[in-house]
Design a protein that fits this description.
- It is a single chain.
- Strands 11-4-8-7-12 form a five-stranded antiparallel sheet, with helices on both faces. Strands 1, 2, 3 and 13 form a four-stranded antiparallel sheet that branches.
- It is globular, with a radius of gyration of 26 Å.
- It contains ten helices and 13 strands.
- By secondary structure, it is of the alpha+beta class.
- The structure holds zinc ion (3 copies).
- The site of one zinc ion (ZN) has 9 residues, from helix 3.
């Protein structure tokens, strides 16, 4: 139930003489839950005469501000902007698979794989596995050992899909929390080494030097990071071989999906990244986990381009919150024990704070990225030649909006090359009042999210 205060705020807004303009600003943000407020002005001046051709100022806007979408990719922060991000990611992944957005359709004939690289084990966790539609016992061991903390290393439960124990260790005191967060911190570097090793292996198999390979083919990547419930990231990637000038050029005849598959398997098992010993922690060498999944993407088979694009786009808007951590930065002064999170996440965060305080590990900025459980990489990245870019998709959308603004008389129709544009903007806050938030919901159908990151019912 909305509070009377919220309802009063909503009524005030509805009676505001500038309500129509406010509503149109809100629609232009697509129902963003936490729009950025800007205050400022734009002057259009004729450079020849110095004459002012047009002036736009936010002083004439409702509340004296312009509201712009926050553009977050995080669905828990802003469902509507995250949806835009997801849709854009889908478009660009799909363009790299079947063409479109400037990528020719002949790209479908290029060898292309969907690869999942997982993290290694940091201790036994509760899991749910199915075989032929039957849920298997979690971790049944007839000859189970008892750990030094008195826990029997066996679990015969057949866990439900939503059970909160999934991903949690059988014995938290045995679990390698330091290894888990350091793996997350090192995973972008492990990925980079994987791509290099892959290029070397492809060149070697084809009997080429690295330089000769570059003259004949480009290997493109698009990847997303996903958190497993145990709190480590793994990567899903589309890997494709093109001709020397990218997706518009034909790959050489030797570049087959089988050759690429072999190279991926070789590179994934060959690379490692080492974290030197620090006080209280041994040297650790991280490899990918043994569960490597490599599948060929085809237009018609089990794994179609559509399924892959949808899958990658879905994970692009998820962060660590599905592990049960916080959807915001952790401050070193936060009372960890009081945070409303799972104990497993709490221990991973505590480990980030502990290791992050060590000088030797300062470069990983583990304190800053504690709520991400140590991972500070990008959630979705792609190599330059993969397809179009998110920036280009955003530009196209901004151009469309600008067209709308011109037709409604808000922006002058000048050629920006012949007119001097002087603008001044300042940040004036973010978000909605609770009364406005109710109206935004009514106007755009977007659902507000509570601070804990869950949808309101
Ligand atoms: Zn937003
Ligand atoms: Zn279990
Ligand atoms: Zn133990």
């Amino acid at each position: 139930m909305p509070s009377t205060y919220a309802v009063a705020g909503m009524i005030t807004r509805l009676h505001d003489p500038q309500y129509a303009r406010w509503a149109s600003q809100i629609r232009a943000t697509g129902g963003c839950r936490q729009p950025i407020h800007l205050r400022g002005h734009v002057l259009h001046i004729d450079p020849a005469t110095g004459q002012r051709l047009h002036r736009y100022s936010t002083t004439s806007e409702p509340d004296g501000i312009l509201r712009l979408p926050c553009k977050t990719r995080r669905a828990t922060r802003c469902p509507s902007c995250a949806e835009t991000y997801r849709a854009d990611t889908y478009q660009l992944i799909r363009a790299g698979l079947v063409g479109g957005k400037g990528v020719p359709a002949t790209v479908t004939t290029h060898p292309c794989l969907f690869v999942t690289l997982t993290a290694p084990s940091f201790g036994t966790v509760h899991t749910r596995r199915e075989k032929n539609g039957t849920v298997l016992p979690c971790h049944a061991r007839r000859d189970a050992t008892t750990c030094p903390h008195g826990m029997v290393m066996s679990c015969t439960a057949r866990h439900g899909a939503e059970e909160t124990c999934l991903g949690e260790p059988l014995c938290p005191d045995c679990y390698d929390y330091a290894g888990s967060v350091l793996f997350n911190a090192m995973s972008p570097e492990l990925w980079r080494r994987f791509t290099e090793a892959l290029r070397r292996r492809v060149a070697k198999t084809a009997g080429l030097t690295q330089r000769e390979l570059r003259e004949q083919a480009v290997i493109s990547f698009a990847k997303v990071a996903e958190y497993q419930r145990r709190g480590v990231v793994h990567f899903h990637a589309v890997i494709r071989v093109d001709g020397p000038e990218g997706p518009a050029t034909t790959p050489p005849a030797w570049a087959t999906a089988d050759l690429l598959t072999d190279a991926v398997q070789h590179a994934a098992s060959a690379v490692a990244v080492t974290v030197p010993a620090v006080p209280g922690e041994p040297t650790r060498a991280f490899h990918w986990g043994t569960q490597l999944d490599v599948r060929q993407i085809t237009m018609t088979g089990d794994l179609t381009d559509q399924a892959v694009a949808a899958y990658i786009a879905k994970y692009a808007t998820k962060a660590a919150e599905c592990v049960g951590t916080l959807d915001r930065r952790i401050h070193p002064l936060d009372d960890l024990a009081a945070l409303p999170i799972r104990d497993h996440a709490r221990r991973l965060i505590a480990e980030c704070l502990r290791l992050g305080a060590l000088d030797e590990l300062a470069e990983f900025r583990l304190i800053k990225w504690a709520n991400m459980l140590g991972f500070r990489g990008h959630f979705s990245t792609k190599s330059r030649r993969y397809s179009t870019t998110l920036g280009k998709l955003r530009e196209a959308r901004a151009e469309h909006r600008r067209g709308e603004a011109i037709s409604t008389g808000r922006l002058p129709l000048f050629d920006e090359d012949t007119v001097l544009v002087i603008s001044h903007w300042e940040y004036a806050g973010q978000g909605h009042s609770i009364g406005d938030a109710l109206l935004v919901r009514a106007l755009t159908g977007s659902r507000p999210v509570d601070p804990g990151g869950r949808y309101e019912s």
